[in-house]
Structure formats: C-alpha cells, structure tokens
C-alpha cells in the first residue's frame, strides 16, 4: 500500500495555532466576515478536532515525543517553545477540542443577537487556543504563559456582560482569586528553575525521580504547584470565584467548568505527578484539600436555588473528587473522571443554558414540568444527571468507581466513607434540578417555553452521546475493537504506556456505590418530585444548618471581612504613604524647594555689568590661588 | 638683555590698569579701551615668554597676532553695540543698562 503522508504528531502545534489565528482574524477582520467571524472560530476548533484524530493515531502507532524550537538563549539557559505529545496531553486535546467545538456551535444559537457577538467568538477562540497550548506545553514557562492566558480569557468571558455590575465584580473576583494560586505556581516554577536551571518538564521530573532535589524543597514545590491548581480548579479555600463566575453567558460556564479552565488545575497536578509521587506529604495535601472541597461543594449544591449555581457547586465537588483521586494515586482514575466529567458537565450547563434561554429565568423554584415543552433538553439533561450520579452503564459510573477504588486502596476508612457520602450527596443534588425543573406541574408563566433551535440541541445530543459511551473506554476490548496495536487495550493501558494498567472492577464496590446513587436519586424523587418529605419542613428543622449552607459557610463574608479589615486598611496605608511621602514630599517637595531656591537666589543677579566683571575677576583670581596652593 | 621680570612687571601693571578701568569706569567706550589694555598685557607676556624660552619657534608671536585679530573683531562688534545703545538711550553709561536680570 502506498504510504500517504498524513499529518502526524509533529503537526499538533497547529491545533492551538489555528484557534489563535482565528482569534487574530476575528479581532482584525471580524466585522466584515459573515456571522461576524463566528464561523472562523468554529472552523478553527473543528479543524483542531480533526487534527486531534491524526495525532492520536500517530501516537498509537509510535512513541510519545517532544518537539521544540529555541525561543531565545540567555547565557547558558535556553528558553524553548515546545510541545509534548503523550497520552495525557493527547487525551486533553481530544476533550478540549471536542467540548469546545460543541460549545461554540451551541453558542451560535445562544448568543444570537448579542451586540458583541464577534468579540465573544474571538475570546472563545483565544480561550481554546490557550488551553490547548497549556496541555501541549513541554516546559513550565510556556505552561505558565498559557496558564495566565487562560486566566485572562476567563476574566473576559465571565465579565462578558460587563454592563452588569455583578458580572464585572464576578470577573474581578475570579481573576484575583485565581491569581492567589498563580503566584504560588510561579514561585514553585522559579524554585525549580533555581534548583535545576531548566524549565523543561521531563528533565525536571527525571531529576526529581533521581532524587536530585532535597525532599523538603520538593514538597514545597509540589505544594506551591498545587496552589496554582487550587486556584484554577476551584479547590477549597480558593473555590469562591467559581459560583460567581456564573455571571458569564451560560456556554462560557460550560466551557470554563467542563473542558478548560477548571480542568487545567487537575491537568497540572496530573502532569506534575512525578513530582508529587516523590515529594513526601504532597499527595496527602492534595487528597485532604480534595476531600474538603468535594464535601463543601456537594453540601452547598443542595441548598442553592439558582440553576447554574447548583451545577457550579457540583463542579466544585467533582473537582474535589478528582483531586482526592489524584491524591490517592489514582492517576488514571482522575484523568478518566476529568474526561467523562467534561462531557456530562458541559452537557448539564448547556441544558441549563437551553432552559434559561427559553424561560428567561434561572431560579429553579420558578420552573417545573418543562419536559413537555423541551423534550430534547430534558432527555439530555437527565442523561447528564444520571451520568453525574454514577449509574451504570453511563460514563460517570466507571470514572467514579475507578476513583473510589483508588481512594479505598490508599486512604483511611474514614476518608473512604466520606467519599461515599460525597457520592450520595452528588446524586441527591443533581436529582434536585432534574426533578424540579423538568417534572411536576408546568407553571403558567412558563407556558411560552419552547425547545431550543437545532444549532443548540445537536451539540447537546452529541455531548449526551459522549456522556453515555465515554465510560466504555476503560474496557480492554475497546482497543482490539478498533484494530489498535496490542498494547492499547483500554483507557488505563493508554495512559500508562510503559506499565499497562487495566480497568479495575470490583463487583461489590460497584454494587453498593450504585445502590448509594439509586438511594440518593430515590430520596431526591420523594423529596423533590413526590413531595412526600417537604423540603420546607427539613429546612425548618435544620434552620441553623440551612442558614450556614445558604451563606456558603460564611466564606464569602469571611473573605470580605478580611478584605475590608486587612487588605483595604493596608491599601489605605499605602495610599497615604503615596500621597504624603511620595507625592507631597518627594515630587512636590523637590519642585517647591527648587522654586524657593530660585525665588531667593535671583536677587544676586543685579544686571549690572561691573558686578559680573568683578565676579569674573575675583573668581579667576580665586581659582588661580587655589590652583597655586594645591600644586 | 632686558630681564624677563621687567616684561612681567610691565604686563602685570598694564593688566591691573585695564582691570581697574573695566571695573571702575561707567562709560562703555572706556571699558572697551580698558579691555584692549588687558589684551595687550597678555600679548606682552606671550611675546616675552616666547622669545626667552623658545626663540626659534615664534609661537608666542603667532599667538599674539591671533589675539590682536580677535581683539580687532571684538572691538568692531562691541562698538557697533555701543552705537546702537547710544541711538536708543542717548547714553553709554553702563549703570543704566541693567535690564538683563530677573
């Protein structure tokens, strides 16, 4: 068979490159293009998705590789642009391109008629480009650059409707909160650079594995890097920005909370896993933070009434769960969870967006019985909800069980029990919007609700399809089914090229985790659908607990108090210093002194000729005398 | 041969007279004349030193000719200014010319 030169992994840089190009095209020419340039962005990400398949195929038939070009040299250090093609980055490429593609197509319908339609797609393209660049980066410097690009894009998109004060505030909050983590990440990277003199990831990881870095510094670096991941992945206590980020357009929420921004943190920890493995305590920190986050997120998701906020808190809880799995050494489990979560969480958001688009409301108490009006949205939303709850055979079931096995094997029974509680809670909190929004009586004011146009429902159906089947990748018959080389049996084997690891399946665990999820869904059904147990009476009985939850554990108030008392007080001090010392004394003081000196000294200028002549004569004499004395 | 000191004393005396004239006179023309005296004092110095220290090279003499040339030009310019001054103010008293100050 003649060999055709298909684009291989060396072309992977085009995947982010195309979206970056799309951003430039839309910014400069968007107004003159059809659809204000939206099609450019969609074409770019669509081509990226196609390229992903070639890269994947190339990876399956050859070995992971890195490609780089030198950016510039500074003395003995060489900074490079480079990309790493390995199972982890290719998996992320697939997730990001597919979800971003679905979301951008959906946005065509959702953002229709928005005055900044073109700008929206420009930022979406830049967002996708930075995220794709982030997952491809083969050195920490490039990773940090794209990391910050992701941050600025999320700022732009959350604050997309910046005319609304709350949106502008939310964007600011997201930016500042994640920045707290980013500083940690930067310090961690710089410490690594100081230790090893390179940003290159594989060099750093090899050095760490060899033990070239002392354990103390390694732990410090790992925790600093995790700090960056905490900011981006909304881990406790830096999770507060994520629910507020719901101020952005709903597809943005889907993109940020499924495929891109929050996934960046989990990806970073997974990418730096060789560091975490050898750093004592680092994984424990990851696990504990993850556990706290998942519990906080899932309890808060139970009491929110804003549809998007419920899903936002569910994202926090799921991200915590991934971190918990990572902290338990469940690398493959966490990445599987990241992938399945990307699909069903994007779908949940798109479903919510469809409902909001149709009814114009966000409060679930004002909804009900919408399945008659919007059957496609209802079905896809419920598919996503079941996937999130983790019922077999949907994708969430496999990823959740895989994570639970990792947690059970690595952590104490208490942690494992709490993880099961989180599983129960997540099924319960997702049952609530599903039942309340789509079942029950249709409210008369929602009578005009209608199904969304195909441009929105088709991406949702595609994501629903992925939510259903993406769990099957774990099985060892998947690889042979597509005629792949023998070593690629399934997801675990794919991620661990060197040490193939099959999908663990524990029947007992599967049975009772499923039972827990069913119990939670049943409880949700009795409470939210049948009304056998009235939510109001529960609220009354646990009024104190409810109040704490509704106020989000008072964390926002606590931070606000800190900002008011400490940050603003310090800022006032700095402002005072600036006004009094820098401005009044330093700048104006110099000017005043000069003016005063001139005012006084000008009187010695008499304008009389002989005064000057005398000064010259005496001065010259003086100089001569001094010169004479000195020599 | 006349000792070098005599030339130096003559030159110093001439210079001091010139300096006195510049500082004490009020008439601009007289001040100019005093400046000429000072310049000529310098010329005497130059020629005297030159003929005594390097008689074959005439460096001092050449320099003195330059000084004379420049002095002539300076007097031409200065007298022109004095004339303009006189046309404007009907006076060449430098006491009255004191507007070049704050």
Which properties best describe this structure?
heterodimer; A: 631 residues; mainly alpha; two-stranded antiparallel sheet; globular; B: 102 residues; Helix Hairpins; 76% helix; 0% strand
Tell me what you see in this structure.
The complex is a heterodimer of chains A (631) and B (102). By secondary structure, chain A is mainly alpha-helical. Helix content of chain A is 72%, strand content 3%. Chain A contains 26 helices and two strands. A two-stranded antiparallel ribbon of chain A has the order 1-2. In chain A, a hairpin with a 2-residue loop joins β1 and β2 (77-85). In chain A, α5 (140-158) runs antiparallel to α6, α14 (307-327) packs antiparallel against α18 (413-438) and α16 (375-389) runs parallel beside α19. The N and C termini of chain A lie far apart (98 Å). The model of chain A has no long low-confidence stretch (mean pLDDT 82). By secondary structure, chain B is mainly α. Chain B has one domain: Helix Hairpins (Orthogonal Bundle), CATH 1.10.287.3510. Helices cover 76% and strands 0% of the residues of chain B. Chain B is built from three helices and no strands. The interface between A and B is medium-sized, with 11 and 13 residues.
């Amino acid at each position: 068979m003649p060999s055709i030169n298909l684009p291989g992994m060396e072309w992977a840089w085009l995947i982010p490159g195309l979206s970056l190009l799309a951003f430039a095209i839309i910014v400069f020419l968007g107004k003159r293009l059809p659809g204000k340039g939206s099609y450019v962005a969609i074409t770019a990400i669509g081509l990226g998705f196609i390229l992903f398949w070639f890269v994947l195929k190339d990876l399956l038939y050859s070995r992971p590789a890195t490609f780089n070009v030198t950016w510039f040299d500074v003395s003995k250090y060489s900074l490079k642009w480079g990309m790493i093609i390995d199972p982890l980055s290719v998996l992320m490429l697939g997730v990001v391109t597919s979800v971003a593609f679905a979301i951008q197509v959906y946005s065509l319908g959702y953002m229709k008629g928005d005055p900044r339609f073109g700008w929206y797609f420009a930022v979406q393209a830049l967002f996708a480009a930075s995220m794709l660049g982030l997952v491809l980066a083969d050195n920490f410097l490039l990773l940090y650059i794209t990391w910050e690009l992701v941050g600025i894009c999320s700022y732009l998109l959350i604050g997309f409707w910046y005319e609304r004060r709350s949106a502008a505030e939310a964007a600011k909050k997201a930016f500042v909160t994640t920045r707290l983590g980013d500083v940690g990440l930067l310090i961690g990277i710089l410490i690594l650079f100081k230790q090893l003199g390179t940003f290159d990831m594989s060099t750093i990881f090899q050095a760490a594995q060899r033990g070239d870095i002392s354990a103390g510094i390694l732990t410090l670096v790992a925790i600093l890097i995790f700090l960056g991941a905490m900011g981006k992945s909304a881990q406790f206590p830096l999770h507060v920005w994520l629910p507020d980020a719901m101020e952005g357009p709903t597809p943005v929420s889907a993109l940020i909370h499924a495929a891109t921004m929050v996934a960046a943190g989990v990806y970073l920890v997974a990418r730096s896993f060789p560091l975490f493995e050898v750093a004592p305590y680092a994984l424990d920190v990851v696990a504990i933070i993850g556990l706290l986050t998942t519990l906080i997120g899932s309890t808060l998701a139970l009491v929110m009434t804003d549809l998007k906020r419920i899903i936002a808190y569910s994202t926090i809880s799921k991200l915590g769960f991934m971190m918990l799995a990572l902290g338990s050494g469940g690398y493959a489990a966490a990445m599987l969870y990241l992938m399945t979560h990307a699909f069903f969480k994007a779908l949940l958001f798109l479903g919510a967006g469809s409902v909001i688009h149709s009814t114009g409301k966000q409060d679930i108490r004002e909804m009900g019985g919408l399945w008659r009006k919007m059957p496609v949205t209802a079905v896809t939303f419920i598919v996503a909800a079941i996937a999130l709850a983790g019922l077999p055979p949907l994708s969430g079931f496999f990823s959740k069980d895989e994570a639970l096995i990792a947690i059970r094997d690595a952590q104490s029974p208490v942690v494992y029990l709490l993880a099961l509680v989180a599983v129960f809670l997540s099924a319960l909190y997702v049952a609530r919007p599903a039942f309340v929004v789509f079942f029950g009586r249709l409210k008369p004011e929602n009578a005009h609700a209608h199904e969304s146009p195909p441009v929105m429902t088709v991406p949702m159906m595609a994501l629903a399809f992925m939510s259903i089947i993406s769990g099957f990748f774990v099985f060892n018959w998947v690889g042979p089914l597509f005629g792949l080389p023998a070593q690629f049996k399934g997801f675990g084997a794919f991620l661990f090229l060197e040490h193939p690891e099959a999908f663990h399946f524990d029947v007992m665990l599967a049975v009772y985790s499923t039972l827990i999820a069913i119990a939670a869904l049943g409880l949700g059904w009795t409470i939210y659908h049948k009304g056998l147990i009235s939510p109001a009476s529960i609220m009354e009985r646990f009024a104190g607990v409810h109040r704490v939850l509704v106020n989000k554990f008072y964390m926002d108030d606590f931070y606000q108090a800190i900002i008011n008392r400490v940050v603003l007080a310090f800022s006032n001090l700095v402002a005072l210093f600036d006004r009094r010392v820098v401005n009044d004394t330093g700048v104006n003081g110099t000017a005043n002194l000069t003016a005063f000196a001139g005012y006084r000294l000008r009187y010695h200028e008499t304008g009389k000729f002989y005064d000057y002549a005398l000064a010259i004569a005496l001065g010259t004499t003086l100089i001569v005398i001094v010169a004479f004395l000195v020599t | 041969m006349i000792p070098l000191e005599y030339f130096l004393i003559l030159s110093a005396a001439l210079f001091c007279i010139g300096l006195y004239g510049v500082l004490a006179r009020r008439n601009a023309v007289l001040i100019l004349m005093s400046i000429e005296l000072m310049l000529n004092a310098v010329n005497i110095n130059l020629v005297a030193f030159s003929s005594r220290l390097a008689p074959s090279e005439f460096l001092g003499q050449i320099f003195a000719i330059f000084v004379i040339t420049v002095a002539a030009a300076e007097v031409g310019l200065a007298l022109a200014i004095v004339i303009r001054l006189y046309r404007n103010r009907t006076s060449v008293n430098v006491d009255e010319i004191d507007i070049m100050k704050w």
